[in-house]
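Continued from yesterday's entry.
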Amino acid sequence: MRLLVKIIPKVKSDGYHLNIFADDAHDEVGPIVEDEVLSAILELEDVPKGGPPSRRMQRHVRDSEKQIGKDIGGRAQPASGALPGMKGDARARGRHRVESKTTKSLSFSVDRRDLNKIRSECTGQEKPAFVVEFVNPQTLREEDKWVLIPYEDWYEAHVNQGSGKRGG
């Protein structure tokens, strides 16, 4: 596991000190004396494995789905798509239907069945999208977000740009 550590020097009345930060942990060492070894201990919270999501995580997921709905010009689906006829997590009727997943992990596995599920829930001209959001395990702040869409949709939007012709 890799961990980003920030070290910020600080001048105090008794000399130089180092403030060391990693995630939500912090320690200060000093004063710095030539040829002296300094140690810092950072207490990092263990990220719980498995189990139901916390209320904080549930609120974050709900807010994220609302934001995705807003971003696509639609809205979040009630009950995260668990109701009949209201499938997917966000939808812009007639344009997009989105399934959204949020993880505290460094990786997220997507099965083709997950992609086929959101594709099968689209109606009319709706385009399916599968969003994966990676959040900081302690703060739940978004660190990265990716969207999986069918190749044909990506090609049409970014390569072909609506001309309807396929390159050769």
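--- second protein ---
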Amino acid sequence: MSPLLFFEIVERKNSTMNTSQMNMTCTTRFLSFILLHIFLFTLTNAQSPYYMLNFCQNSTEKTNNTSYRSNVNNLLLWIDTDSATGSVSNHIAINSNKTNNNDNDGDVVYGFYDCRGDITGSFCQFCINAAVRDIAQRCPNGVSAMIWYDICVIGYSDHNTSGKISVTPSWNLTGTKNAKDSTELEKAVNDMRKLIGKVTAEANSNWAVGEFNWSDTEKRYGWVQCNSDLTKDGCRYCLETMLDKVPQCCGTKVKWAVVSPSCGMEIDDNKFYNLQTESPPSFQNPGISFLEFELLLRY
């Protein structure tokens, strides 16, 4: 075999190998691209946290306090980081100036985050991450702030609210479907009272859900939850206070929810929660056109 022919054969083999490697690389990158977008699409659509409401309390004095603003930023960073560990609820006091945090220190920031009881893992983290970004944009100068999503809540304040009952500000939402008659409100209230009794009787739980058979073809699904730092008596008081608002705000609707900083409840004829023994639910973004909002500010 001549040297020229040998080098020509080797060159063709190398060219074929390079083409094959390039094709494999392109195929691998394409598959990775597709898998990434499938994951993001699934995460975004199967569990899209839906913004509900935010509350901001501003103060010129605190706005100009760079130490306090720094503590707020550190708090939000902590919430983002702590939720990534798999925790679904926690609270902390951030104070860069002193080791002994107390209510008399004007720079200390108290904050918390919480996910709905049936939401765990990456779904909770995804919602908390969204809330952290959103509250920084919606309340850039807030002394106290809270933001609610359909499956999580975060908040911070310049005073310690841990273990304290806070029922203001409160808000509610209702669906568009009307109740058939006034007896449905009575049934719904009785069902929610059962859940209040359940959550305040169970030692290590701050939330409860229930499925209620109204007829052979009709059911209702309920959820109640309190902040994890409330006592059982405090939890009951908060939930009963929210339930007392229902006849005035929501009694004519099938779907309704009432929420405050310390607790909340919801009932619907569609199952909106997930139990740990079930497959993860496909949470739908309800869209603003399907909900009616009313903010109840009572100080």
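The first strand starts at residue 51 and ends at 58. Residues 113 and 220 are 28 Å apart (CA to CA). Will compare against the first tomorrow.
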